[in-house]
Amino acid sequence: MGFGFLPLGVNGSIMLITLPQLLAADHVPEVRIAAITSLALAPGFFSFLLAPLLDWRFARRSWAIGLSLISAAATVTALLLVKNLAVLPVAVFVSSFAAYLVAAAAGGWFGNLTEMGDRMQLGAWLAVANIASGGVAATVAIPLLRDLPYALGAGLLGLLLLSATPVFWFTDCPPADGRLARESFADFARDVGALLRRPSVLWTLFLFVTPATSFALTNILGGLGRDFHTSEKMVGLIGGAGVTLAGIGGSLLIPRLSPYLAPRPLYLWVGGLGALFSLGLIAAPRTPAVFGLALMGENVFQAAAFAVSNLIILRTIGDDNPLAATQFGLLMAASSGPLTYMQILDGQAYAVGGANGAFAADALVSGGVCLGLAVLLFALRRRIPAV
Hints:
Layout: H1 6-25, H2 30-41, H3 43-46, H4 60-80, H5 88-113, H6 119-147, H7 150-161, H8 165-170, H9 178-182, H10 185-196, H11 199-209, H12 232-257, H13 263-280, H14 288-317, H15 324-379
């Protein structure tokens, strides 16, 4: 079931790693590249606007397969029209939007099929599939596009986005909830509004919109190789194979820790220890070895945070939830917000104080928030619904 997040991982890799490389090779200004790639990040937050449709009218299998096809087609279009800067942003946005909705459909669907005790394993493997598929796509994309006829390479990358389709096709899927399917849109919107007022959902939303476990440093460290006297070739090696292995390790670490800590405290422990790791990097020498340690370490913590987030979402959904995909999409979107604003904060801190400024800003903000949330959750532990 972890392969349900494969389209999200492949899409993110192509849009955030491969596409910028292609644009840079065409001498597109960096400001324009940043603006286009930002459209691949925006759906992470705005996908919640259409997530309720995943529980309305059609079975989640139909949504997952249909949206995978849309994402693949838009990805191929983006690659083929990479020189058309008027159409390219639209294709990038559509591809990423559809990929996020595939993840929401799969998360809600598979969460309802899984026993509560198995959801930590599901949450971890969703994170593994997301990270590993992104690493594979980053490794093969440029060779496919450069060493084969370009259109063929683009088509093969589109097929890679569809490689989870057999999982969707053969996994048991209950039909769409009969009552929801018969409702008018206004009645359906009322049900979604009632979902948003549930205390367990509100507390999870509050937890996720904070920067407790954003680890946005992972998105800027790749560009800091020169600060650590690291060659581009070494940056590529660490950022590909190294980060993929670190991400898988961080994801699979969580099931081993979950028997000893409840999901919310575990979430804050990951954030707090990660903040201490970032703070420790300030005193480390600027060497290639430290660069590798920093990039892989940050990805271990971020992957662990993804796995715990998935667990919290899956447990919040509960059993036999007719709005499971809606809820999964909403909470996943909330967790995407801090990645955006913390990346802006880290970038500004780097402009002021270099790498040490970015490390300090990320660590102090995230660590301080983790500490504050720990105090709050402890003080209100009798009033906050368990997950």
